[in-house]
């Protein structure tokens, strides 16, 4: 399969997951909003780093996958769904951690070298007041 075909298929899969995700208020009615703060680093041939913040409100889709900082990454798996589900179930307002991208570094190294882009994250969940 060619690189363009792989990227197109990956994009379609992610888009379908997003549009088929329920709204935050439907999936987690006890949650008012979720904020994900990220410090991302990639130290491949070119070193990158950035800081980003995503806020999800009740009317947003409950889709929590982010793009890898490595623009050449194939099949990035940086999804915060599991961490959010655990935090909501435990009613934890703040969670911190680190994720490593297990996608492939680039098309030339597909099935050979993992991306290994690093993301330090902080989740802050605001619960609906009873």
Walk me through this protein's architecture.
By secondary structure, this protein is α+β, with helices and mostly antiparallel strands. The chain has one domain. It contains three helices and four strands, in the order H-H-E-E-H-E-E. The chain has helices spanning 3-19, 24-27, 81-89; strands spanning 31-43, 47-57, 94-100, 118-127. The longest helix has 17 residues, at 3-19. The mean pLDDT is 91.
| Tally of alpha and pi helices | 3
Q: What general form does the structure show?
A: globular
What's the number of domains? 1
Gyration radius, in Å: 16 Å
How many strands in all?
A: 4
| Order of adjacent strands in the largest pleated sheet | 2-1-4-3
**Helix amount, in percent?**
10-25%
**Percent of sequence in beta strands:** 25-35%
User: Helices and strands: which structural class?
Assistant: alpha+beta
Main beta sheet, described? 4 strands, antiparallel
The end-to-end span amounts to: 53 Å
SSE series: HHEEHEE
Mean pLDDT rating = 91
Uncertain regions spanning at least 5 consecutive residues: none
Question: Gist?
Answer:
By secondary structure, the protein is α+β, with helices and mostly antiparallel strands. The protein contains three helices and four strands; from the N terminus they run ααββαββ.
Which properties best describe this structure?
globular, 4 strands, 130 residues, 32% strand, alpha+beta, 4-stranded antiparallel sheet, 23% helix
């Amino acid at each position: 399969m060619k690189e363009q075909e792989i990227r197109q298929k990956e994009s379609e899969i992610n888009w379908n997951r997003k549009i088929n995700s329920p709204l935050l208020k439907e999936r987690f009615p006890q949650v008012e909003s979720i904020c994900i703060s990220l410090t991302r680093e990639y130290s491949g041939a070119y070193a990158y780093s950035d800081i980003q913040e995503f806020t999800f409100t009740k009317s947003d889709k409950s889709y929590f996958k982010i793009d890898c900082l490595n623009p050449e990454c194939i099949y990035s798996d940086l999804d915060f769904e599991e961490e959010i589900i655990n935090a909501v179930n435990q009613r934890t307002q703040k969670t911190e951690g680190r994720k490593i991208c297990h996608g492939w570094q680039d098309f030339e190294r597909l099935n050979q070298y993992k991306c290994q882009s690093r993301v330090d994250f902080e989740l802050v969940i605001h619960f609906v007041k009873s």
